Write the structure tokens for this entry.
Amino acid sequence: MLLTNTRTILKINIVATFFLSFAIQSILYAQTTLIPDVDFEQALVDMNIDTNGLNGNILNSDANAIITLNIFNRNIYDLTGIEAFTNLKYLYCFQNHINAINITQNIALEILDIQDNKIAELDLSQNSALKELNINSNLLDDIDVSHNLNLELLYCSLNYLNDLDISGNIALRGLWCYSNNLNTININTNTNLEVLFCSGNGLSTLDVSQNTNLITLSCGSNNLDYLSISINTALTYLECSSNNLNDIDISSNTLLERILCNNNSLSELDTSNANNLFLLYTQNNTINSLDFSNNQSLRYLRAENNNLLHLDFRNNHNGIVSGFNVIQNPDLTCIYVDDVSANYLDTWNIGNNSNFVENETDCNALSINDHIIIEFNMFPNPARELVTITLNQSQTNFQLFSMSGKLVLSKYLIYGDNQIHLPNLSSGIYLAKLNSEQVSTTKKLIIH
């Protein structure tokens, strides 16, 4: 009888132990979340977030403790398991291979950066706390941000978006939506907008009249034939290149520091009120006159391939210029500068027909014929007692004028190399003029 009772008790203990073990395993299983992507879990293990090791899951308690998660550039394809991070506020998982992500359980998210992945769909309906969203460089053709009313920064460039409704996102301060398929964009309700990059779309109109806080506007490579920015007096950066603009009025934009309006059809550009102008790119237009006498901060100028007849750069600060290019303006004879003898002018890129002058008298002394066909090289320059002129034709008369217009030397030149002595000439700037059959070419010669 005692033996029977002992066996019964032992059997009961074995059954109880089995059920207890099963219950414990069930509880433990319920306290973990699957993470099928090995690289995702390895990243969590490496950061001491996943404390139960590389076993295909993570303890929910581990995930719940995380506020910030940086798992960018970790070769991750599948982000299954991110739903366990219910207290996550900041998620950075850019530069991976993720094609889908479920963040409907991550309702505390404030910053989400998933740029440079392969995501084609994204549900943001539960992420009302989101303030910053970066989905650049994905495969999205649609994005709904109507539930994200706290959104301040939206980066959605380099996708395939056909439409973007941000009418409800009145807290938005920055929008980057360049290189999409947008034909229209309405930002009338986004009165807090300070930064807008919408280049490389198909926009034919852009109304920024309600965006008086705009500091940066980039709308190049669209189909704009009109752009009014007179109300945007806070602008410091304007990029409207590669459009169809015939005119751009910046007279009210006194804070502008950088203007890129190249590759349009502009015939004029008045920068006289842009006293802080630092950089101007206006190449490939039809501008015939530029005056920078009020732009003492200007350091970078590109104005090649225009119709320039007049260029005044006498602003008493020519020495700060780091980049200057006005080639391909064949009718630009005179470029007015502070000091024609300054060494820094050697780095300024000008056309063969252009000359640096300090005043109108010097310009008039050039008297360059409209049809210039004589080509010659003159070296050394600066010269002292001797200069060699290499000529591409014969029967050419050489004349050397002072900047006041006085003829100081005349000589007949032949084809090839011609050595010319410069007797008793004072140091300074001279104009070397070659005449042949009613055509002429003039170049500057420095004697020291």
User: Anything to note?
Assistant: The chain has a mean pLDDT of 90.
